[in-house]
Amino acid sequence: MTTFDWHIIRRLVTGYVFLIVALIVFFILLHYLEYIDDFLDRGATMREVFLVYYPSYIPEIVRLISPLALFLACVYLTGKLAQELQLVALQTSGVSLYRLLLPYLLVGLTVTGAMLWFNGWVVPVTNRTVLEFDQKHLKDAPRRIDVSNLHRQHRPGVLVTVRYYDRRDSVAHHVSLQQFDGGRRLVERIDAPRMTWVDSLQVWRLRDATIRSFAEGQPERRRRVATLDTSLVVYPRDLARTERDVQAMTIPTAAEYVDALRRSGAGSLGRPLVHFHSKFSYPFANLILVLIGVPLAAVRRRGGQAVQLGLGLLTAFAYLALQKLTEPFGYAGDVSPLLVAWLPHATFLLVAMGMLVQARK
To answer: 111 and 66 in contact (C-beta within 8 Å)?
Structure first.
């Protein structure tokens, strides 16, 4: 590493941090102006908004804007070096563009690794507060995916049916547990008007349950019990699903959640699967945009850095637009959620490779 490499790293990191801070302030200001009516109408105090909600929202903002901030810092720095002819002087002396890319790559890889950890373990913790606040105070709160007539599989041959689940009190209403034998014959059915989650015991408690047994060739047997605890492999989060549940889960918890939804036979898995795979794919946008930013800004253009930044913003917009255009196909299940999560990044990685190959060495 040369002195010039450390010079680039220092200036790139400084620009990145400055843009992160500036974009956080800008994002919070726009968000507050957009939702101030909701805050006032639904009783949110200024203390809750600015001392609880927005401080908890900052990690999510950082996750979202990190690729853009790093990309703009990269374009600005490289464009300035190009306009001042420093890049030309280095290339004339035999230093290739690939060698100049080294400090940028080190920063890009470091930020990508940090964001992978940040996105997988830090952001979900603060997002729980954000999502809870959104549900309470915003009209555009995360929409419930399942509202009523829920069907889940406890294990092969055991089905759980819930007519309605109250997320706030963790109470399921009009519950039926049905057990079938290998031939799909009903052998036992438990019906209860209420089923409550007991968090301390990690069990569901059925009240006033009626247990009906069906033995082949024998009359139905029926008995009633006041309370019945059952350790279903179905949890409150599996019944009270919203569009953004996975965003409030760490990577290990989200993996267990998605696996549980698959086992239970839940529908509408496209959205949680896209969000789950995005926990791994989105941080790589930091590195990919660095690979695009250097060759994009390394060429002197008429108009100077204003043109460079304009091209940079256009590229970032195209990147974001491709992600948003492909996500609905993954939500609907028309395209594999794994493919949807990685396709924009793979596409722009190819663009970056093409630009590096064509750039002046």
So the answer is: yes
